[in-house]
Amino acid sequence: MGIVAGLDSSPDFTRIVVCDADTGAVLKQGYAAHPVEGGGRASDVDPQAWLLSLGEAAGGGLLEGVQAIGVSSQQNAVVPLDAQGNTVRPAMVGGDKRAQVAAADLVDALGGREAWAQAVGCVPQAAQPVTKLRWLNKTEPDAALRTAVLLQAHDWLVWQLLGRPVRRTTDRGGASGTGYWSAATGAYRADLVELALGHQAMLPEVIGPSDAAGTTPEGLLISAGTGETMAAAFGLGIGLGDAVVSLGASGSVMAVHPEALVDNSGMITSLADATGMHLPVVTTLNAVRTLRGAAEMLGLGDLESLSELAMKSTPGAHGLVLLPYLEGERTPNLPHTAGTLSGLRRESMKPEHLARAAFEGMLCGLADALDVLRGRGVEVRRVFLLGAAAELSAVQAAAPALFGAQVVVPQPADYAAIGAARQAAWALGVQQGTLDPRTPPMWQGPAAQVLEPGEELAVGQAVRQQYVSVREQTYPGAFR
């Protein structure tokens, strides 16, 4: 079929991969950091910065011969435009703690968490576009009033690449993270835009996973684009039976499922994926920050040292259990709580046991999140483990038995950019008549380590039970 490109515009940089459209083999790559203006708030970004870094990353003829491009971009960024298509103010990006009060306002305005879960499959958080619109309405009413069109980052980039046509598009994946589109019904909730922004605004047309957004004046096909989470899942090639556990400062667990999950507790965020399926996500506030805290407490300079120390202990950490709720917790919903260290005895008060308890506490917290999905009928046979901490020996030793599943640790790569390129290959194949609109191209899976629970499964389940007992004792019914 030829060659395609995927570009991932993350919060800090643009990365471009050029791939063989048939196999997915990466042929060339480009990279450029977004230009940073001094003094600007991290929550506000001029979207032109994304275009500048895109141009730099594509320099040196990187895109020569490319027939189609897919765009992945940071989720939760919202670009408010006026009636002429100009930005009303800088794009609102990131977690944006300014919007925390606005999130609580919105939850109350619709009648509580359950009402939101039923409406759009998620409860407003500070990061979401719908919450940022509420913040804009309350703090910058003039800018809110001039806002006529709402785009997300990947929508805006696709629109720019196509020469700013009248038609503006998005995909199911990106739309499902806005807080005003329902993955269950496949429709916008314009009333929620009005509730947040104070008036209606034009929203991009949601097109199918293999549809093209359009063609550039030079004849380059641009696919639908999607959010980074959905693009990374597509780049990894995950399907039914697969879950992805991401180890950042906070953690997330997502899995492919054939239907949208409505969760009245608000623990599950019901997203759509980039293939026409669904991507329920459960997040924990405390993942690698738990390990960093333990390393500092023990006077260790890095996580590798903490991992080596933990490996000197044994499963169960001599009875030490750490509930890692250092920043409060979302799963279970305990926003105002703190961490708990339980099981202190004279023989367990050793650095290696505390190190082991930190790893087991983090992984058991993520296993709790996995169980939220399993409890709703989501099948989990295989767990992809992402993030730098996935390489640590203490994580790899404990994760398969604690998760009760095969664990796959893919080699580091920009899976979001690869997923965007795979989407471009799909749209190109459909246009050329060589691919089915319902079946994405079969690309080679990532090179990865595969870890089995094996004989350790029973030991892991005992450690998990020890953790659950302490959690239930400390926070009875937290998961009811």
Automatic annotation (TrEMBL):
Residue ranges occupied by any Carbohydrate kinase FGGY N-terminal domain in the UniProt entry: 5-228
Domain Carbohydrate kinase FGGY C-terminal: 243-428
Source species, domain of life: Bacteria
Annotated InterPro entries: ATPase_NBD, Carb_kinase_FGGY, Carb_kinase_FGGY_CS, FGGY_C, FGGY_Carb_Kinase, FGGY_N
A GO term, aspect molecular function: D-xylulokinase activity
Keywords associated with the record: Carbohydrate metabolism, Kinase, Transferase, Xylose metabolism
Keyword Cytoplasm: no
EC number of the protein: 2.7.1.17
Record-level GO BP terms: D-xylose metabolic process
Enzyme class, spelled out: transferase
Protein family according to the UniProt entry: Belongs to the FGGY kinase family.
Protein name (Swiss-Prot/TrEMBL): Xylulokinase
Organism: Streptomyces canus
